[in-house]
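Quick one: structure for this chain?
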Amino acid sequence: VLSACSSITGVTGMACNDTTETIYLGRASATLDALADASVVVDTIVVKDLDNHLLAEIDVSDHLTVIEGLTFDTTRRTFWVWAFDDAAPGTPIRDLQGRCSFFEIDPAGTLLTTVPADPSLCDLGGHMPGMLAYDASRDGVWVQAEGSPLAELYALPSWQVIRSIDTGIAGEGIAVSPFDGTLYLVDPNGVYQLDPQCAGCPPVHLGPNPVCAGGSEGVAVDPTDRTVYIAADSGVHGHCPEGNSVWHIDPHGTHDPYVGYE
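Got it. Here's what it folds into:
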């Protein structure tokens, strides 16, 4: 497992494949201060099985900068990534203020679509690109910016907002259950379920956040058994001693040993 001292790379978004029992993990290329040297590390989608075996690494660094949100579109069989727009190595993050997009990328790493995001979603004044979750039942992508309790559902392929929910949870991670459309949310205080069809219903607290210091990035629901995976990096959220790892919990919040990411 990568140590908490790692500052140039970290686990970000996460998704599950609905047919092959694999996990996709975003691996970011940068710290918050400056982009990493592209010769050292690149923005990558890492493919692993549920036993933590590395299956593939998909280089997406020619298309974007600092991969954050990641989801797998089970209809189109492609990835959607939320990140800053492509920039040269050494560019300070502050120079990318307001410049982020949603990128559609196929499993070979080919860029298919680029949709500019609202600049307010990455204004660096409290909002950074956050997490994504594909909703097959609605053929859309749920979007939640870092530090914002607002979850918005964008219809595909138009990328028009068709639903906005104030979740009351200002964490970064969001996932949608392929079984019933339930949303899963994470903040420093816990893991939550939210029924997007129940107007005004509060999130249901499932249990404590298993990640040290309450830090987390991506969340994904296993399409085979409804368990939940929570990812965290090492450098941004709380300097976890088990950073760059994935925690596996059941739907009731019982913590299983984490699946080490390395």
